[in-house]
């Protein structure tokens, strides 16, 4: 895809969303259930869309929340539901709609004590803290967020009592029931007026920020950070964790300079992403150009997406780290510096993450658990401690507390930010320098992901690729060693195909949220070899889509 001439530059006014028009569309829009793009659709991270496209309107939230109440009742989930929101313009209206339905069903809802914004990991932590040691009256949660998506989008995701992203069995049930309600114009949805919902005895207040910040020393060596005069910087990208950094300094004495504390639903302060859109993607060198330009001011700096479940790490030595590079450094550091973790605790990665992680795990003597794309596949392992770390190539990860017990079972961008500070403090070198040291011993791979347009029908065909589709025994001049349609770590379908040789691999899979397919490829032999892998992979995909 072509890179926009605006990429990396300040956003012009012409790109800014008209917030009054957007919110009006949320309430006035009437989605047509006969149009697939206007139905409820749970991808890898909940339902997402824009009110301007009739893909995220009040009717969607009424239907989803009613379905969720019915699901909770059927499952016997009677504990509190922790409700958080991010800073997208549609998040507050959607929260209000959800509250009206939840209160009508007498669900015990916990909203932020200060009516503030709530990072996804703070909701996950709250669920797990409530459920610790319980078998009844279990809590769950909702986060109203489209993650790093553009400002006109809204999102709504559900975290069951395990604290992590809901699995496909759960989301399929909610999606099917919500679409049935949508088709019936939501006539059977129960709701009460917002003011009544806010005053309801079932609606309570919870200090997400204090609970999260107070618990941080159980997961991060804050003493090491405090004892070193590091200059740390953070750009929350106008997201849900803006107010958390002040609290971290007040509670723990760790100073992190917030380079931008503005919360603006148009996100006018952002640099434009690669495709000419505003997107709060902390792993994008274009969206992160502002913080990267400040790299020399800090020993290490970081940013997060809008719900703060993803991380972006900026170092003096390397600028913005590729997410795979930071995952390698994080894994290497954690398994060497967490002596209370079980010797059996494994490294979790997705099938499309760098093969360098395999080599790091092998050098550490740790078992590798390779799963399909989606953080939900790490939930059980993080919950029971059989995974010490779970991470995705898309800059999402979490890991255990220092004593080897569960921290969060959803991605935690703030945690990975502070880990970068811990690593720099303890090693005396930043994560970019440490990655270079790892590659000198284990190889220096070249990795790239390419997105290409694909219709829903083409995506469906791509998801059914099989080893028989390959038609050759070689890839870029090397014998093929494996062809996978299921992940080796749990035998779950990867929704595509991965082909690997000794020195490289590619994986092709349809996106769960956009009409594109994703082609991941990596080579340990250099960029020219990577290009050969990509070209042969594209040929295979073209044949499959013909």
Number of strands: 23
Q: Categorize the overall geometry.
A: globular
How large is the count of helical segments? Answer: 17
Radius of gyration: 22 Å
Q: Look at the structure and give the mean pLDDT.
A: 96
Report strand %: 15-25%
Main sheet: strands, sense, barrel: 7 strands, mixed
Terminal-residue CA separation: 20 Å
Which fold does the CATH topology of the largest domain refer to? Alpha-D-Glucose-1,6-Bisphosphate, Chain A, domain 3
Write the layout of secondary structure elements.
Elements: H1 19-28, E1 42-43, E2 46-50, H2 58-75, E3 81-85, H3 91-104, E4 109-112, H4 120-131, E5 140-144, E6 153-159, H5 168-183, H6 194-199, E7 203-206, H7 208-215, H8 222-226, E8 232-235, H9 244-252, E9 257-258, H10 289-292, E10 300-304, E11 311-315, E12 319-320, H11 323-336, E13 346-350, H12 356-364, E14 368-371, H13 379-384, E15 387-392, E16 396-399, H14 413-427, H15 431-442, E17 446-453, H16 456-463, E18 474-475, E19 478-479, E20 482-486, E21 493-500, E22 504-510, E23 516-523, H17 527-545
Parallel strand pairs: 3-4, 3-5, 4-7, 8-9, 8-10, 13-14, 13-15
Antiparallel strand pairs: 1-2, 2-6, 5-6, 10-11, 11-12, 15-16, 17-23, 18-19, 20-21, 21-22, 22-23
Helix pairs in contact: 2-3, 2-5, 4-7, 7-9, 11-12, 11-15
């Amino acid at each position: 895809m072509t890179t926009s001439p605006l990429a990396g530059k300040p956003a012009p006014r012409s790109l800014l969303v008209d917030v009054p028009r957007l919110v009006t569309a949320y309430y006035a829009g009437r989605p047509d259930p006969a149009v697939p793009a206007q139905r409820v659709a749970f991808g890898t991270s909940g339902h997402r869309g824009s009110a301007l496209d009739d893909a995220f309107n009040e009717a969607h939230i009424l239907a989803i929340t009613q379905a969720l109440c019915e699901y909770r009742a059927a499952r016997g989930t009677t504990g509190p539901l922790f409700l958080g929101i991010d800073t997208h313009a549609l998040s507050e209206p959607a929260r209000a709609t959800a509250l009206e339905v939840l209160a009508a069903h007498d669900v015990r809802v916990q909203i932020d004590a200060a009516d503030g914004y709530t990072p996804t990991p703070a909701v996950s932590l709250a669920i797990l803290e409530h459920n610790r040691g319980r078998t009844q009256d279990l809590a769950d949660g909702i986060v109203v967020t489209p993650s790093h998506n553009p400002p006109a989008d809204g999102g709504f995701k559900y975290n069951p009592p395990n604290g992590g992203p809901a699995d496909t069995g759960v989301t399929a049930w909610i999606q099917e029931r919500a679409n049935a309600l949508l088709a019936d114009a939501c006539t059977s949805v129960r709701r009460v007026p917002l003011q009544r919902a806010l005053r309801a005895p079932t609606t309570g207040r919870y200090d997400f920020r204090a609970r999260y910040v107070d618990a941080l020393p159980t997961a991060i060596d804050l003493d090491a950070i405090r004892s070193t005069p590091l200059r740390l910087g953070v750009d929350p990208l106008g997201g849900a964790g803006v107010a958390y950094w002040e609290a971290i300094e007040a509670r723990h004495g760790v100073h992190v300079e917030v380079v931008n504390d503005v919360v603006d639903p148009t996100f006018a302060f952002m640099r434009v992403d690669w495709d000419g859109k505003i997107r709060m993607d902390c792993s994008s060198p274009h969206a992160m150009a502002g913080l990267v330009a400040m790299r020399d001011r800090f020993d290490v700096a970081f940013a997060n997406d809008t719900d703060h479940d993803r991380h972006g790490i900026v170092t003096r030595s390397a600028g913005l780290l590729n997410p795979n590079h930071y995952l390698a450094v994080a894994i290497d550091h954690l398994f060497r510096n967490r002596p209370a973790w079980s010797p059996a605790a494994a490294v979790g990665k997705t099938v499309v993450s760098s093969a360098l992680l395999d080599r790091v795990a092998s050098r550490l003597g740790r078992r590798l658990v390779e799963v399909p794309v989606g953080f939900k596949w790490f939930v059980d392992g993080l919950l029971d401690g059989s995974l010490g770390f779970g991470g995705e190539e898309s800059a999402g990860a979490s890991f255990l507390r220092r004593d080897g017990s569960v921290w969060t079972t959803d991605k935690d961008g703030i945690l990975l930010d502070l880990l970068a500070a811990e690593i720099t403090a303890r090693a005396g070198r930043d994560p970019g320098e440490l990655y270079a040291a790892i590659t000198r011993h284990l190889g220096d791979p070249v990795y790239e992901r390419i997105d290409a347009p694909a219709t829903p029908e083409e995506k469906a065909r791509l998801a059914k690729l099989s080893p028989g589709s390959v038609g050759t025994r070689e890839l870029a001049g090397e014998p093929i060693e494996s062809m996978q349609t299921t992940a080796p770590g749990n035998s779950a379908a990867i929704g595509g195909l991965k082909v690997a040789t000794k020195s490289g691999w590619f994986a092709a899979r349809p996106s769960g949220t956009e009409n594109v397919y994703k082609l991941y490829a990596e080579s340990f032999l250099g960029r020219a070899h990577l290009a050969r892998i990509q070209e042969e992979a594209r040929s295979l995909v073209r044949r499959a889509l013909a």
